[in-house]
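Re: beginner question about structure tokens

> Can someone show what the tokenized structure looks like for a real chain? I only ever see the sequence side.

Sure, here's an example I had lying around. Input first:
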Amino acid sequence: MIKIVLCDDDQKVFEEVPFYINKYFQSKNNHRYEISCFDSATALINALEDEKNFDIYILDIYIGDEIGTNLAKTIRKRGVESPIIFLTTSIEHAPQSFETGTLRYLIKPLDPEKLYEAMVAAIVQVEKMNDRMVKFKTENGVESVAVNNIMCSESYGHYQYITLKDGKKIRVRNTVAELFATLGKYGGFVRVGSPYIINLRHVKNVSSTDVWLYNDIKIQIPRGKRTEIKNAFWDFQYEGWED
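And the corresponding structure tokens:
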């Protein structure tokens, strides 16, 4: 199931875009999909706060008083790496849009062929992201976990407890160094002191003393590591979306 979100304040777009996307998927028998429509940036952010997940984002540049590029930055700061497609009547914000790793920038009135091309590219990217799965040997057998769903891990004795976005915890028998070597292949992971590994995709803020992840997870930064962690966080915000 490919989950698509459409955020726009134009009723015509709510009719037009789903119509063409439906036509596109009718020719793709191997894909199932659903579209969720939001008429404001606030409504979409609230859905993300409720832990709703989407695979493809289609955003208007002007959504009421909101600017779509600002919405895209907010989405990215939540650790979302899904492809973003912009719809707009203006090319004014094109340079800013590509700062958030925008996949396509489509000009209204909508050209169906351009939308189909964007959907092909988006689905390729989604499938590539879905291939980024890590297999963990646990007490319940082998579990496959998407890299994007890993929030952090904490060491207890000979075990690492991995926290996922939905709050689930997985216990694996590894050293911190072994787990970090596994996760480090995918980029975006840093160690915070001896016991913790965090996924920078899910960092909300870095203060002078703590790292705050979404889901209200707080991890204290060792005194000598504060500058290193802050720099890693900001570097990832601006460069990490190409991983």
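Each token stands for a local structural state, so reading them left to right follows the chain. The chain has two domains: 2-130, 134-242.
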